[in-house]
Amino acid sequence: xxxxxxxxxxxxxxxxxxxxxxxxxxxxDFKLIxxxxxxxxxxxxxxxxxxxxxGLKVIGGEGTSVRKTVSPISTLIxxxxxxxxxxxxxxxxxxxxxxxxLPENNANYDIKLNFKYSDNTAIExxxxxxxxxxxxxxFKITAEPPTQSDPFQVNVFVGGISAIGNTYxxxxxxxx
Length: 176
Prior knowledge:
There is one protein chain. Strands 1, 2, 3, 5, 7, 10 and 12 form a 7-stranded antiparallel sheet that branches. Strands 4-6-11-8-9 form a 5-stranded antiparallel sheet, with no helix packed on it. The chain has one helix at about 25-45; strands spanning about 5-10, 10-15, 55, 55-60, 65-70, 85, 95-105, 105-115, 120-135, 140-145, 155-160, 165-175. The model is unreliable at about 20-25 (pLDDT under 50). The relative contact order is 0.27. The protein is mostly beta strands.
């Protein structure tokens, strides 16, 4: 059992991974993989650098993840809880963001993701309705912000009529 990824645009990849999945690599394969990575690095002239990722803080909440049960649709007097914003720390340029939705049960969600900017603009980088997710299997969406673009928030919309009453946990990583 491994990660299942689909590239839906040139810079966006959607991945699901079964809980408890692992990869088994014997010592020979590990040495071969390590040697291949080293050779590719030497050929390209680029040093090997580990990517650093950090969890973004939930705005209006505590910590770097939030557990939600999808509320009914908004009315004139009530609001839904389908949007969650995550704060991107200033002074750093992140080149990749990973949104992880971990559903507690099988459900279909409408999912939209946006980079939000301090000038009140937003760039949508994912928009799909009726996305089938499976209980306890992470649904991951990876995206790169447009060049020369540093968002100050990542907005995650998870909801939909068919999702009402379903529970999930959402988090966002920013990587550099």
